[in-house]
Design a protein that fits this description.
Helix content is 48%, strand content 22%. The protein is α/β, with parallel strands linked by helices and 148 residues long. α2 packs across α3 and α4 crosses α5. It is globular and about 40 Å long. The chain starts with a helix and ends with a helix.
Length: 148
């Protein structure tokens, strides 16, 4: 059986960005040139099987060439338990979807996203529904800027 990555034409230069939390996964995608980042959705986590199926559907829709995963590093640069759990789940994503996974320091991405939403005048209730998608977008923007 082919993975979603093997079923598709991999000519796209898109990157999918994930902000993986215990309750949700924020998702963002770049354009094909790898210049802009756009929020896609927030996945409500249920169980690994359903989470992977939802990610597969997104991969099939956007045909990215890689998956960017935000990792929360400790102040000293080490990985804590939360980051280790994210790495383990990311390895399952990589194996299931057949795409390379790139890790990126997500430190302050949620704070940056929240500040941006506050400055845009978004209320607390609405911010809560889009914060993870926005954090994935911030992670992707920083990654894309580092490559230019």
């Amino acid at each position: 059986m082919k993975t979603p990555a093997e079923k598709q034409d991999r000519t796209s230069g898109r990157t999918i960005s994930l902000d993986i939390g215990t309750k949700t996964i924020g998702v963002a995608v770049s354009d094909e040139l790898g210049i802009t980042a756009n929020g896609v959705c927030t996945i409500s986590r249920e169980n690994e099987k359903k989470d992977l199926a939802q990610l597969r559907d997104i991969i099939e829709r956007y045909s990215p060439c890689e998956i960017l995963v935000g990792l929360p590093y400790n102040q000293d640069g080490s990985l804590g338990n939360r980051a280790k759990g994210i790495r383990k789940f990311s390895e399952r994503i990589r194996d299931f979807l057949g795409l390379p996974v790139v890790y990126w320091d997500e430190s302050f991405s949620t704070k940056t996203a929240e500040q941006t939403l506050i400055e845009a005048g978004m209320g607390r209730k609405k911010r809560k529904t889009v914060i993870d998608k926005m954090a994935a977008t911030v992670i992707l923007e920083e990654y894309l800027l580092s490559r230019s």
